[in-house]
Amino acid sequence: DHGEMLGDHGIYIKGPFMYDPAIRVPLIISFPQAIAGGCRTNVLVELGDMAPTLLEAAGLPRDPGMQTRSLWPFLVGADRAARFRGDVYCEYYNSNPNKPAQYCTMVRTDTHKIVVWHGQELGELYDLQADPTETRNLWDDPSRAKVKMAMMKRLCDRMAYTCDPLPE
Fold first, then answer.
1. Residues 134, 136, 140, 146, Cα dihedral to 10°
2. How do beta strands 88-93 and 103-108 pair?
3. Euclidean distance between CA atoms 127 and 150, whole angstroms
C-alpha cells in the first residue's frame, strides 16, 4: 500500500498526494534460508514487483501478463551492484471518489519527481537533491524546461507501458 501523510505538507488524509511520505515506504523482506546476510539499499521498487518476486522465490512461473520485475536476483546477491529500477510510477484515478474528480500520475527517479494533474493546467516538478522535502514546485520555472520535458517523456512512457500486454 502506501504511507500516511501524518501532517506532512499540512495533509492528514488519504487522497491524490504524491509526496514521498505517502509513496515512499519501507520494504522489509526476511527469508533466512535463501537470503544470506542483510541487504539494505535505497533502490527504487514498486508494489507490483512483489508478485513476481514471491513467485520466483517459490520456484513458480510468472504470468506472461505481469509487467513488473522480480527482486529475487537482487535479494539473493546476483544483481546487488546493478541498479534495479530507474524510476517508479504511481497513478491516482479518482479512487475515493473525489468531487470534482481527481486524476494524476507521477514518476520519480533518484533525482527528480514529476506529478501531472490530468484535465487541469497543474503539475508539480521537484529537484529531490536540492529539495528533498518537496517544498519548491519547479513546474513553472522556465530554467527547468529541459528537465520537465525529460520527466514528462518518462512519465508518458511509463503510462503507455501499463497497457495490458495480453492476449499476445
1. -70
2. antiparallel
3. 13
Rounded CA gap, 113 and 155, in Å? 10
List own/partner pairs for 73-82 with CB under 8 A and 24 or more apart: 74/39, 74/43, 75/29, 75/31, 75/34, 75/35, 75/39, 76/34, 76/35, 76/36, 77/36, 77/39, 80/39, 80/41
109-134: average pLDDT: 95
The pTM assigned to this predicted structure is: 0.85
Name which of 35-39, 87-91, 102-106 the model is least confident about. 35-39
Q: Which residues pair with 105 in a beta bridge?
A: 91, 116
